[in-house]
Amino acid sequence: ATVSVLYWPPREMMKLAGLVSLCALLILPADAKKVSGSFHLSAGDETHGPEYEISKYTFAVGKSMIKGKVTYSASDQNWMTSPALYLFNDDKWEEYHKAPACMDKVEAAHTVVKIGSKNEQQGGRSNINYGYDHLAKNTKTWTTQKGNKIEWSFEWEIEHTERSKGWFLIAADCALEQYNTRVAPMSFEIQMLNPGGNHLPADEHWLPTVYVIVLISLCFHAGYCCSVLSLTMEHHRKVHLVVKLFAIAYFLQLLSIVFELVHQLIYSLNGRGVFALDFFSELAEGICALIISFVLICLASGWTLIEQGADAKRGQSVATLFRNPRSLVQSGNWLGNLLAIALVGLVAYVMFLIFLNKLSDEDFTKFHDSDSEAGTTLIRIRLVLFSFFGFSMFATIKKLRSKSTQQNLMSFLIKLLIFGSLWFVTFPVAVTIANLSPHYHRHRVVVIGVLVVQAICLAVLSHQFLKDESAYAKLSTAWESGMLPGAGGLISGKKTVKE
After folding, report:
1. Which one, of 57, 41, 182, lies nearest residue 115 by Cα?
2. What are residue 158's DSSP bridge partners?
3. Closest CA to 294 of 415, 471, 420
4. Given phi > 0 = left and psi -120 to 50 = alpha, else beta, which region is 233?
5. Which of 63, 252, 367, 446 has the fewest C-beta atoms lying within 10 Å of its C-beta?
6. What is the pLDDT of residues 289-328, one digit of tens each?
7. What's the CA gap between 330 and 332, in Å, rounded?
């Protein structure tokens, strides 16, 4: 029989790992984080004052730099108010948000540079003190006129000696609360550099290294899996749905890391990166997590582990459908088809949430990937899936205990319960730990915790699904019947345990 198998020789996987390593060497500190845009300060309304949040950034210990330019019309440069750039330290951020008025907010600023001022003119146009007790000292400013446009440029040096700190850059004109007058629209281009010209925020330091290590490890392990699969194919000649789903999830995890590394490489070249790559990285990881969750829930329901002959003699339920996933797409099975539609809807909803979550990355209150309403919803979905997994697993264990099932199967199910629980709770636990940590560590806690644990889980799953001597191979009805490899949801004869 002709067999079609997705197979990548181990030697090719080694080449891929080498290529990834070479690309990793190219991720060198190059340019700063760059932000650009425009704002038009006004008196505001009941919910918003004359402030505009430009960017946030985490600076490491040492001498760092913020530099850029603000452009406005030359005919509008004689405004009678006091627009300025304000830099807030992380320990003053709550105070800033709680302050009722702009004048109260800017009193919490660490440093102030007046827009349009020169070094010798830091006193400004207004006699009112809008946080000017904190006027910047290590600052260079100059103006250049190009036609009808004024370019006001600045360089702002920041030095830390104790720890990494988060900084928030705000444009504000508190005088507008007193004088509701017209201020020129302004555009800006600003760069932020860590010590040594490093563009990465301090909360992302070492993350590229972690990505590369995990990627190379997964590539080598994928080569090992391919060699094991080739040996398995000599005996079974087919690929079971468990293996196919796992292979897809494994590939998506690799793709997610590659997208993120390429995004960071481009970020190092232009200071912005590519939103699409960053988004598709999270999307691939999210779909990978859904696939593994689906497989674990099906296994918890008894898929390939429990004889299904009895299920055919009684009415269908969600549990019996998960015990035989093939039935989800069978014609005329209304409950299975309805559940399949619900699963497709769940995937689409998760994709939508990931997109919304990505759009909020520049939110000033977001300190890690899941620190948003959409991110919180994704965590809740993971917990719901975990509860369904736990319920299915305990129901299966209870059913088997009542039948005096072989001890080997019970032992495997308990191990699967522990391993599956670890998979589901890693993400929520990592986010909880991150939320209790200083904000400049939160991003790394979530990324490293989730990435490393998911990589380990994928490695453990691959061993269980592919090795002849694994506990799953000895217990699986699909493997014993010669159908692991097969189409999934198979009904086999009486199971005998191989010792």
Report:
1. 41
2. 64
3. 420
4. alpha
5. 63
6. 999 998 888 888 877 666 555 555 555 556 666 666 766 7
7. 6
